[in-house]
Design goal:
Elements (H helix, E strand, L loop, with lengths): L2 E8 L3 H12 L4 E4 L15 E4 L10 H18 L4 E2 L3 E5 L4 H13 L4 E4 H7 L10 E5 L3 E4 H14 L3 E3 L4 E6 L4 E5 L3 E9 L5 H4 L8 E12 L12 E6 L10 E5 L7 E6 L4 E3 L11 H14 L3 E15 L6 E4 L6 E5 L9 H14 L12 H4 L11
Parallel strand pairs: 1-2, 1-12, 2-9, 5-14, 12-20
Antiparallel strand pairs: 3-8, 4-8, 5-7, 6-7, 10-11, 11-12, 13-16, 13-17, 13-18, 14-15, 15-16, 19-20
The structure holds flavin-adenine dinucleotide.
Length: 395
Amino acid sequence: MAEVFDAIVLGVGGFGSGAAYHLARRGLRVLGLDRFGPAHDQGSSHGETRIIRKAYFEHSDYVPLLLRAYDLWADLEAESQQQLFWKCGLMLAGLPDSEAISGARFSASQHGLTIENLSASAATNRWPGFRVPDAFDAIFEPDAGFLKVEDCVRTHLDRATAYGATLLFDEPVVSWSSTGREVRVRTATHEFVAASLVITAGSWAASVLADLKLPLQVLRKPVLWFETTSPAYNLDASMPTFYFEMPPVGQVSNVPHTFYGFPSLDGQVLKVAQHSGGDIVTDPLLVDRQLYDADLRPIVNFLQTCLPAVRPQPARHSTCLYTVTPDRHFVVDRHPEFSNVVVGCGFSGHGFKFTSVLGSVFADLATTGRTELPIEFLNLARLSGRKPLAVGRSP
Ligand SMILES: Cc1cc2nc3c(=O)[nH]c(=O)nc-3n(C[C@H](O)[C@H](O)[C@H](O)COP(=O)(O)OP(=O)(O)OC[C@H]3O[C@@H](n4cnc5c(N)ncnc54)[C@H](O)[C@@H]3O)c2cc1C
């Protein structure tokens, strides 16, 4: 006999942990399934930290979601009595017409967000660990900072369990089906039935949702920790998180190289990575997690130009996965054929900060088919070419 639940969450990593928490908190009988263990390091939600910010340069339509995300992170911290968010600010640097600088200014002006505009020399004087190139502008967003990524996932899962959710790990889902009113989910040894299904399968989304033929690309993203030689990089020296948009080099490409990083949390190493680029992964279960010279070279060049008091030999590294859509915007929608199946995928390397708010959106869609939050711009039809079900705001 299949076990029966109100809602099943397929994949309880970053987004699925948020969905399981919000569903369980609303009193539903929730089952969360994952192929790995809690807060594991095989997908997209590991590596210590994630930047969170409001002046969103990728698109100003994300800002209302971000405002709610901040509230929900604060609620989760209060409920769990655990610090998850560090408000150390963010410094963005790039040419005045770069996507990062112009986009952040636009979002800030549209939504009345606080940002400070700084010249390159003013930024370098304020944070002596940086060398901001002369032609660049800088922006400081004081409300930004970072989340401790594994702690966020674990806390969502722990609180979901506290509200009665059943979570099964090392339990890969092998198939699912829906009649539109009932879903059936199978693993190698179990079968489960529920009224609704939330699919948050990260880098496995394209295979779990094979029928939709989603144009998702999985990218291998090494993340590195380097020793610092100056206390200017320390969190307690007011060092912010940072994001640099470096102009394209030479005539080979017109794509900027973007790098980001975090203050040193322990006074010894800081974390830095390249946001642009990345090798395509054909099977997320077979990712090459070694570090190569080609991974290191652009990051070391960046450090030598912009963070010169960081030693160029990495102290350690980790490998993470981006799952990107062609327009680099998320997919948050109901399945085009099954109204009781909710899809969250394609978070394109900038999703984690939203796991609180989109966890609640997935719970809205799974229970009522609607949400008050403005998610229309994240619809699935733009990628699949299929007509979407109406995902309206609540009246
Ligand atoms: C290096 C790096 C840096 C990043 N930096 C930032 C940042 O600074 N700020 C930010 O906001 N975002 C950032 N992101 C993006 C963010 O981390 C991701 O968007 C987010 O973590 C994606 O979460 P997810 O739930 O989609 O994937 P995951 O957390 O990987 O979860 C998917 C889950 O589904 C499970 N699963 C898949 N298939 C099955 C199956 N068949 N059966 C059972 N379980 C299954 C997997 O095991 C996994 O646990 C970064 C990402 C990376 C890789």
